[in-house]
Amino acid sequence: MHAAPAPAPASASTLSWLKDAPFDLTLTVGIPLLAIGMGLSAWAVPALFLPLLAFHTWCFGFDHVIATFTKLAGARSDRRRNRFLIFGLPPLVFAALLGASTLVGVGGLNTAYFLFQWFHTTRQSWGVAQHYRRAAGGMAWDPPWLSELTLWSVPVVGILRRCHEQPAKFLWMELRLPYVPAWLVVGTGAIAAALVALFVVMRVRAWRRGERVLPHTLYFATHLLIFALAYLVVDDLHAGWLLVNVWHNVQYLAYVWMHNRARFADRIDSDAPLLSWICQPGAARAVGYFAGCVLISTPLFAAIFALGDRLDAALAGRVASMTLLFALTLNFHHYLVDGIIWKRRRPS
User: Fold this and answer.
1) Can you give the residue ranges of every domain in the chain?
2) Has residue 280 got a pLDDT over 50?
C-alpha cells in the first residue's frame, strides 16, 4: 500500500499525527502490541496457533480484504473507474494461478504466497511511513533513500534467514524456499544492524535539535521491532508469520478507516451514502464500520470456500485444490489492486 496524500505539515504542538493522538498511538503502539502478544503466545504454546489463526483470519484477514473494496468500490464513481479491477482482474488472476498450478504444483503456489506476502507487508509499511514523513513536513535531514533502505533491511535479513533454515512446510503445505548460505545472512544482518544504529543516532540528534518527529519515529521503530521479532527472534515459522500478519492486517483496517473518515469528513456523500454515513464522527460509527466489514466478509468468504470444497470433491483431486486457488486469488488480487489504487490521485 502506498500512502494517501497527507495533509499540510502539522505544527509541533500536534506532533504531526496522521489523525490524532489516540488513533496514531493505536496504530503505532497498540496494534504492534496486539500482534506481538498473539505471535509470542503461539510461539510459547504451539497448541494456540490454530485457534489464534482462526480468530485472526475471521476477524482481521477477511475484513482487511473487504476494507480494500471500500477504497476500490465504496462509491459509484469508484465502481465506474475500477470496473476492470473489480470484475475483470479476479478471473485473470484465478486463470493464471490455475495455469501455474499445473507447472509448479501446490508447493510452488504456497511458496509464491509466502514470498509475496512478505513483500506486500513490507511495501505497505513503507507507504505508511511515507505518510508520516509528509505529515512531519518532509524531514529533509533524513534522506528517503536511506530511510527506505533501513526499513527494508530487517525484513530482508529475516527472509534470508528463513531461506537458510529451509522449512519444509508452511500452513501444512509444501514450501520451497531457495537456499541461502549462512554467510549471506550474517553479512546482511551486519548491514542491517549498522543501518538501525544510524537510525537511532539520527533520531537522537533530531530530538536534541528540537525536531519532535515522534509519530514517524514510533511507527518506524515498531516496524523494525515487528520484523526482528517475527523473523530473527521467533524460531517458529508459523508463529512469526502470524505476528507479522496480524500487525499488517489490523494496521490496514485502521489505515483504510482513517482514509475513509477523512474522505467523507463531516458529510454524507450521495455517491457513497452508506460508506460515508458509517464513516462519520463517533465511536459507535467506528465500531459499526469494523462490524460491517465482519458482517460482509463472513458469509461471503464462507460461501466462496464452501464452493471450493464442493468443487474439490467433484474433481476428486484431478486439479489443484479449488479452495486454495480461490484463497490465493483473493490474496493476489488484493496485492495487485492495493499497489494501484493507493498510487492514484483522486479525480476532482
Assistant:
1) 12-341
2) yes
